[in-house]
Amino acid sequence: MALGRMRALAALMILLLTGREAAAHGAEAHLFHSVWTIDPWIVTPLAVAAFLYGRGCWRLRRRARTSRPVVAKRALCCWAGWLTLAGALLSPLHWLGEQLFTFHMIEHEIIMAISAPMIVIARPAGMFLWGLPDRLRRWTGRAMRRSSVRIAWRWLSGGTNATLLHAVALWTWHAPILFDAAVGDVTLHRLQHVSFFATAILFWWSIFWRSNRGVAAWHLFLTMLHTGALGALMALAPRVLYVAQTHAAETWGLTPIEDQQLAGIVMWIPAGTIYAGAALAMAALWIANAGRGADDVQHIRPL
Asked: Which sequence spans correspond to the domains of the chain?
């Protein structure tokens, strides 16, 4: 039943994107059209980030010809992360997320489990700096080298702290009263997305650039467990917990409890699979390096 519902929702998304006409509730017909989110509070940061990163890539490419392959690989990862982030926040997926809890959950998982790690892998801070005007770049560079900034960054991006901060953001915002409040308040909704993305950046930075791979695998495993538990609570709850978020479910051929169950399954299984896969990969690299006697601790300067 759940699989059939997921297929139906996927079909609705395709219809919405292609602008075709579909039927809901049997004879009732709806015309689906692309509904893109043009919110300056979303569009402006994305556009500024794209401009600065693109300008930084162009300037650095001209200066460092020998490192062009590295720049290209990192740029590919960063643009992939940027595109998925923009797609989640601006495309009809965002509008659908305001109608159905299931799509809202898909949007959140794209932001946290796909966009954030892709951007972190690219380590884009240097490119952003090169994208700034020279005077501002030098001032920002000096600010980033201050001991207070470095200490704060190391604390925030440390493995345990970053994992806990990400977990707190997830569990706090998924409290039914807060989640429903964010659905009805655009400021809270923006704050929710910023919290998810910022703590996901910290979490994945700790995984890829700060932690021993064995420790990183452990933190990924813990995150898989607690996000899976949260998803299971939603999927197995005997009653509707998110009343405001699921109020429009019947318009789309679902009951509110079915919408909530599908949202929980999205967090429980597909998202959990990403964390599990990353944990296994980190564990395999840790074991391989240990077998070769390699130093597995990643001495990466913050920022």
From this structure: 2-292
